[in-house]
Specification:
heterodimer; A: 104 residues; Rieske Iron-sulfur Protein; four-stranded antiparallel sheet; three-stranded antiparallel sheet; 10 strands; B: 359 residues; mainly alpha; 0% strand; globular
Chain lengths: 104, 359
């Protein structure tokens, strides 16, 4: 069953940036887009075990710090080699200045 | 230690996976997120400017070769064209393969494909082999890009400067792949969904070489081949001169790039040709930092790295006795001192007893 979990405060993430959030033995990445929207995905790259939160956010793309694989963090779509498998995304809402993500 | 097995599907591969050396977590110098974010920023400006100079110099020197063909005046043009085609293409291939040279994706891809062709490298295969090189840098049995294996074959290393061995390997490899055959080793690092793309890319390359040979025959001239294909022989020396220093003589099977990778200060011309890859420890630690930001990254983290070699000459002089010793004791490697400000080397996996080699 899915639960809404508090990931961080809105101000914890800079615009066009990402932070790591660990919960229940899993790791997630929480993004703030240049137009001030929030998104969440799995925290590890689907290519190899690298934390996406150490990568670079450019517009709607997150680039993995290990091999520069790119995903659209809004949809989870892999954008070409070396990443071939899409990233799992999670619903996000803002409540009282907190970023909440729905984790299944 | 057992003799190294450099096959990517052999005994060393099995051991690397079992011991956790494969796909391990590597040491990184601490850099605040804000600073790293700034260093990682992409821009098209520097690479567009340098690519324009690069292409203009290639076309200009090619025009010189055509114009002066048959006289001694052609020699300086061959020298410049050869290095641009056969050597500087390697760094363009490398940076654009990482997707860091330009901010715009198609620009990276465009230059990547041109440079791959110049190098006789299958662009699909080499994208994956390089990803593996970054995951498992100089891990025996895993890294597909170990230039000098142990014990070192010094004749082979010397011949690399002529490009002959690489040429002899690259062209038949492309031809084999064009016939739809990928080796087991290639299949070990290229995902199945990319195999057809790899075969297609090889076919394009071979088709261009066939067209070039046909043109040379039709014109009864060597010029088409001197411009396309042969620079991989006569212009490759600078790529080898700079590239060999990346890892030669240093540790293998470690998870700390300070132990297996070298930073060397180089002259501005070599740095233009090499696109700052002389800051190689920095590049391996943080591969998402573009080439133009590497000098800044170097300044920021040099307190945690071994002292860079002040020149290529110094680096080769330092490594030569190490290579000679490795002929007899292949476990021997050059372990450089860290400055007092550095965090200690990560010890796991590589506590090698070198006492026999020191005798």
């Amino acid at each position: 069953m899915a639960d809404w979990v508090e990931a961080c405060a809105v101000d914890d993430v800079e615009e066009e940036d990402v932070i790591r959030f660990d919960h229940g033995g899993r790791t997630f990445a929480v993004y703030r887009s240049p137009d001030d929207e929030f998104f969440a995905t799995d925290g590890y790259c689907t290519h190899e075990k690298a934390h996406l939160a150490d990568g670079l956010v450019m517009d709607d793309i997150i680039e993995c710090p290990k091999h520069n694989g790119r995903f659209n963090y809004k949809t989870g779509h892999a954008r070409g080699a070396p990443v071939c498998v899409n990233l799992k995304t999670y619903p996000v809402k803002i409540e009282a200045g907190k970023v909440m993500i729905e984790i299944d | 230690m057992a003799k190294r097995d450099y096959s990517l599907v052999g005994e060393s591969t099995r051991i690397a996976i079992e011991t956790g050396l494969a796909s391990a977590e590597w040491y990184h110098t601490d850099v605040p997120r804000k600073v790293m974010k700034e260093l990682m920023q992409r821009s098209d400006g520097p690479a567009i400017r340098e690519t324009a100079i690069w292409l203009a110099a290639i076309l200009g020197s090619a025009a010189g070769i055509v114009w002066f063909w048959g006289s001694w005046w052609v020699v300086p043009f061959l020298f410049v064209y050869g290095v641009l085609y056969g050597s500087s293409s390697d760094s363009r291939w490398h940076e654009c393969g990482h997707g860091t040279a330009f901010r715009t994706r198609w620009m990276n891809d465009f230059v990547y494909h041109i440079a791959s062709f110049m190098l006789m490298r299958n662009p699909v295969q080499w994208r994956w082999s390089h990803a593996r090189h970054h995951t498992d840098t100089i891990i025996v049995g895993r890294d597909a890009e170990i230039a000098v294996m142990r014990p070192p074959d010094l004749l082979k290393a010397a011949l690399a400067f002529t490009g002959i061995l690489d040429f002899r390997y690259s062209l038949p490899t492309l031809a084999r792949q064009a016939f739809g055959r990928l080796s087991d080793e290639e299949k070990s690092y290229i995902p199945e969904m990319e195999w057809a793309k790899a075969v297609g890319a090889a076919r394009w390359h071979i088709a261009i070489y066939v067209a070039t040979i046909a043109l040379a025959i039709a014109l009864r001239s060597w010029v088409p081949l001197v411009l396309i294909g042969l620079p991989r022989l006569y212009g490759t020396w600078h790529m080898v001169l700079t590239g060999l220093l990346q890892h030669i003589g240093l540790a293998d099977n470690v998870v700390d790039h300070r132990l297996n990778t070298r930073t060397v200060y180089m002259n501005p011309i070599s740095r233009f040709i090499y696109w700052n890859m002389n800051y190689h420890v920095e590049h391996h630690m943080f591969p998402m930092v573009p080439y133009h930001a590497l000098p800044r990254l170097h300044e920021l983290i040099k307190h945690d790295l071994p002292e860079p070699n002040p020149s290529m000459w110094h680096a080769y002089r330092e490594v030569w006795p190490v290579l000679l010793r490795q002929l007899k004791y292949e476990d021997y490697y050059l372990k450089r001192e860290l400055p007092p400000t550095a965090r200690p080397y990560r010890g796991e996996f590589h506590e090698v007893d070198m006492s026999a080699a020191a005798e």
